[in-house]
Specification:
Helix 2 packs across helix 4, helix 2 crosses helix 5 and helix 4 runs parallel beside helix 8. The protein has nine helices and eight strands. Strands 2-6-1-7-8 form a five-stranded parallel sheet. Strands 3-4-5 form a three-stranded antiparallel sheet, with helices on one face. A hairpin with a 2-residue loop joins strand 4 and strand 5. The chain is an alpha/beta fold and 234 residues long.
Length: 234
């Protein structure tokens, strides 16, 4: 196998609503790799906790209850006719539900539970065994795949990220205010960056990308260029 045929692991980490999922999904499609949305996995656990009374009205998770439920929380990704994939939770399509603000507001505290991270990291490592994947999240390049051949750390201002997220939710028919979305982005930044278990940080060998002023097409071209540089496909 020459370098141009080598299938690698591509890790995209970054702050909430930085556009990394869109970037990862489009790159995977362009290079015929499998895309894994690690954030959707944490959202699915959070949705399960919300629907089963394991998160208090003030947002405090029932840590013991969630840990006990982990063995019965089954998460998978179902391919769609249009080439995308939907997250499934215990066999049910929950792609729309996990994107709602009720889940966004609760996901960071749930994600901070060490046992939740350990369980999902193990699942993510298993998904990456055959390589040829693009995975995005918060700790992909630092914890899940520290030896990934290509690591990107994506960032943009909180206001830019909140507006992107707001427009995305409105386009999906969800009723939400920009102010609520911005507050959620700022809150998640703080929790994700300061948690004890696998805090959000840029891997030492990651390439930083501030995409505040970039179009999706510019992002696509830049990412493809990085991929070709690493694999020698250019």
């Amino acid at each position: 196998m020459n370098s141009s045929d080598k299938r690698i692991i591509i890790a995209l980490d970054g702050f909430s609503s930085s556009g990394k999922s869109t970037m990862a999904r489009r790159l995977a499609a362009a290079i015929s790799y499998r895309y894994i949305d690690s954030g959707a996995m944490y959202r699915a656990v959070t949705l399960y906790a919300l629907d089963n009374g394991l998160i208090a009205p003030d947002g405090t998770p029932d840590t013991d209850g969630i840990i006990k439920a982990l063995p019965q929380i089954k998460i998978d990704f179902a391919p769609q006719a249009d080439g995308t994939q939907h997250t499934t939770l215990c066999g049910k399509d929950v792609e729309q539900e996990i994107r709602r603000l009720r889940v966004s507001n609760a996901v960071s505290p749930v994600s901070a539970i060490p046992q939740v991270r350990h369980a999902l990291v193990a699942m993510q490592k298993e998904l990456g065994k055959e390589r040829g994947i693009v995975m995005d999240g918060r700790d992909i390049g630092t914890v899940v795949f520290p030896d990934a051949e290509l690591k990107i750390f994506v960032d943009a201002s909180a206001e830019t990220r909140a507006m992107r997220r707001f427009k995305e939710m409105v386009d999906k028919g969800l009723q939400v205010s920009y102010e609520d979305v911005l507050a959620n982005v700022v809150k998640r930044d703080h929790i994700d960056s300061t948690r004890e278990e696998s805090p959000l940080r840029r891997a030492d060998d990651a390439i930083s990308l501030d995409n505040s002023a970039m179009t999706i097409e510019e992002q696509d071209a830049w990412l493809l260029q990085q991929f070709e540089r690493v694999t020698g496909r250019g």
